[in-house]
Specification:
Elements: E1 4-5, H1 10-22, E2 27-35, E3 38-45, H2 48-61, E4 66-69, E5 72-73, E6 122-133, E7 142-150, E8 162-167, E9 172-180, E10 184-185, E11 192-198, E12 206-212, H3 215-219, E13 221-230, E14 233-243, E15 251-252, E16 272-278, E17 286-292, E18 305-308, H4 314-322, H5 333-347, H6 350-363, E19 369-373, H7 396-399, E20 402-406, E21 415-416, E22 420-424, H8 435-448, H9 457-465, E23 472-482, E24 491-494, E25 497-499, H10 510-514, E26 517-524, H11 532-536, H12 538-544, E27 549-553, E28 557-558, H13 559-575, H14 580-591, H15 597-600, E29 601-604, E30 610-611
Parallel strand pairs: 1-2, 3-4, 3-5, 16-19, 19-20, 21-30, 22-23, 23-26, 26-27, 26-28
Antiparallel strand pairs: 2-3, 6-7, 6-8, 6-15, 7-12, 9-11, 9-13, 10-12, 13-14, 16-17, 17-18, 23-24, 24-25, 27-29
């Protein structure tokens, strides 16, 4: 029997040859077909690794906008629920240092991650966000805007879509959409609407009507952000611009890539989602919108919109307030950080503070908070409600599970993958070694079987650019980092030099293939540069390259506390199956009295996400 049912054509013939040479003994049946623009993989294979490898081969050779992997793992020797054969990678595969101390070879064979939510009776749903001005765009006149989630992509926008999952018998899905713009005047009650997505028919679009403000005259255009969500869970964001005096029925598509989120129907959303958008034109202006979980929608403040500012740029504010944080003495750090937290609380809009206090009064402190933002500098998680507003309060991220995500990033997965752990922990010379970082890496080896590639620039970039043949769940770095300094001395430091954040570009494939978490533990010995994670841009860069989560410090942290913080967080996340937000919360609570380092870490990902077993 021919086990490969593939379409005709040279590319498919080459794929068939590759499958026969590399994976024939691992495949019972492989069928590839098209449903509209969606490429469907069906059949039966012996392991999860084979399933992922097949998908990787197709993604690499056969361009497809959307791929649904419906391959069934059914080995005669293993339960179908297993992750595949437990075959460890060889030292050469993970870039380990050769015996002679030379540099490790690059990794080979790039498979890919399996899309979230496919299987178990759920299916992939794909829609294309559009925004159409159906009136002229003139200062002082009303702009009527039609927003839709279309079945097919508009011309020139084939690469901007929203994916989510739904039960196999779904017929309609309500998708919330909010409009945010500094160049439009619109009442709060008119800022939110519902698009009704239908299974086999065009959706029911929504209309927004707003007055074009005088501010648009100087810009010559109107910038608009559209935020999509489903039952409180973010779906994606579309940024569009309309030139003034645009002709009627002009259509604009956003220059920024639409972020997509898979929506599992059985996973709860965060209790409170806060969208914080900085004015894309720069300056000290933010607009806030809020979404609450189903049980909190009776609160009067739940659907308010607000604005805020600091009186200076976000980056300048961060540097002014946090450059000294690494050097706060134990026993003195909590008071100083509370003062900063109270200042950030006062800078937040009154509408947010009232909503937070209303939720706290209703359910107490144990509710989760998800931040969605386009601004990387201000640690809103550090907010500390002042005593006159709330007695017995603390920093928000010491009281609640919290995480953030970047609106212009890749999709925000609702779970973290299985796979291997890869750790880079350089053992530096010249007296600046980090003993706890070395112990942290060895702990990962002992506890999770982590691989330790040789920590050079080439070794690190090899993992990122040419992923290994087996799935990766965690990429870990523990070592020196700097956000500012002499040219060539900024980024994270390997044995033979620095990896700058600019290296996290489109050549990085690890995130796209496996959606791993990345931990950057930038430690210090004595006086070193501060503010690694925020001002150097590592978290947003990693998120844009499709990493499913990031844990990184806002400033350079103390070696021993940093190590214990990460070990506690990973134990809670992987071993104890805590949500991402709860895992980091518990670790922060364990160490907050010891050092300012426990306050430095922010979590980037779905606050409710859990690690797959």
């Amino acid at each position: 029997m021919n086990k490969f049912a593939l379409p005709d054509g040279p590319a498919w013939d080459e794929l068939r040859r590759q499958l026969e040479e590399q994976l024939e003994d691992e495949i019972t049946l492989l069928e590839v077909s098209f449903e509209g623009r969606r490429l469907i993989l069906a059949g039966e294979v012996f392991s999860e690794a084979t399933k992922q490898s097949i998908e990787a081969m197709i993604v690499e050779r056969i361009p497809a906008s959307v791929l649904a992997n419906r391959l069934v793992v059914a080995s005669p020797f293993f339960n179908a629920g297993d992750d595949g054969f437990d075959v460890p990678m060889s030292p050469s595969e993970v870039g380990a240092a050769p015996d002679n101390g030379g540099e490790a070879p690059a990794l080979e064979v790039p498979p890919t991650a399996v899309p979230d939510g496919i299987g178990d009776g759920r299916e992939l749903v794909t829609r294309f966000p559009t925004a159409q001005a159906i009136s002229d765009v003139r200062v002082g006149e009303r702009l009527d805007l039609k927003v839709d989630l279309s079945l097919t992509p508009p011309a020139g926008a084939e690469d901007s879509w929203i994916d989510f999952t739904a039960d196999g018998d779904w017929t309609t899905l309500p998708i919330d959409v909010e409009i945010v713009s500094w160049q439009l005047q619109i009442d709060d009650v008119d800022r939110r609407a519902i698009i009704l997505v239908k299974r086999d028919a065009p959706s029911r679009p929504v209309m927004f009507s707003a007055l074009v403000a005088e501010e648009a005259r100087a810009l010559g255009r109107v910038n608009i952000h559209l935020i999509f969500s489903h039952d409180g869970r973010p779906c994606g964001e579309l940024a569009v611009s309309f030139e003034l005096t645009a002709s009627q029925s002009a259509t604009a598509m956003g220059e920024t890539t639409t972020a997509s989120v898979n929506i599992p129907t059985d996973q709860p959303s965060a209790d409170l989602t806060v969208n914080i958008l900085q004015d894309p034109g720069g300056g000290d202006r933010y607009q806030w919108t809020f979404n609450v979980g189903p049980g909190l929608r009776n609160l009067g403040e739940a659907f308010r919109f607000a604005s805020s500012g600091f009186g200076m740029s976000a980056k300048d504010y961060f540097k002014a307030k946090f450059n000294a944080c690494p050097y706060l003495a134990q026993g003195q750090h909590e008071g100083a950080l509370q003062g900063i937290g109270e200042e950030i609380w006062r800078a937040a809009p009154l509408e947010f503070r009232n909503l937070y206090l209303a939720i706290q009064k209703s359910v107490g402190f144990k509710f989760s908070i998800q931040i969605m933002t386009n601004e990387p500098y201000v640690p809103w998680e550090l907010m500390f409600p002042v005593e006159e507003d709330l007695e017995g309060a603390g920093h928000l991220y010491l009281m609640h599970p919290m995480a953030r995500w970047f609106m212009d990033g890749a999709s925000m997965p609702a779970s973290f993958p299985t796979g291997d752990v890869i750790t880079f922990a350089p053992q530096y010379e010249y007296g600046d070694n980090l003993p706890a970082a070395q112990a942290e890496a060895e702990w990962l080896v002992t506890k999770y079987g982590a691989h330790r590639p040789y920590p050079t620039y080439a070794g690190f970039m090899g993992v990122l650019q040419t992923p290994p043949s087996t799935a990766v769940r965690l990429l870990h770095f523990a070592g020196h980092g700097a956000s500012e300094g002499a040219p060539g001395s900024v980024g994270i430091r390997m044995l033979d030099g620095w990896v700058p954040v600019d290296a996290i570009n489109s050549s990085v494939q690890l995130g796209k293939r496996y959606r791993p978490i990345c931990i950057i533990n930038a430690c210090q010995v004595g006086a070193t540069d501060a503010c690694l994670a925020s001002t150097s841009g590592w978290p947003p860069a990693l998120v844009r390259r499709s990493f499913s989560g990031v844990i990184a410090p806002l400033w350079s942290v103390q070696d021993n506390i940093a190590s214990e913080f990460i070990k506690d967080a990973l134990t809670e996340l992987i071993d104890n199956q805590q949500s991402f937000g709860n895992a980091v919360l518990k670790s922060r609570q364990n160490h907050s009295a010891m050092s300012p380092s426990a306050f430095a870490y922010l979590s980037y990902g779905d606050v409710m996400a859990k690690a797959a077993n």
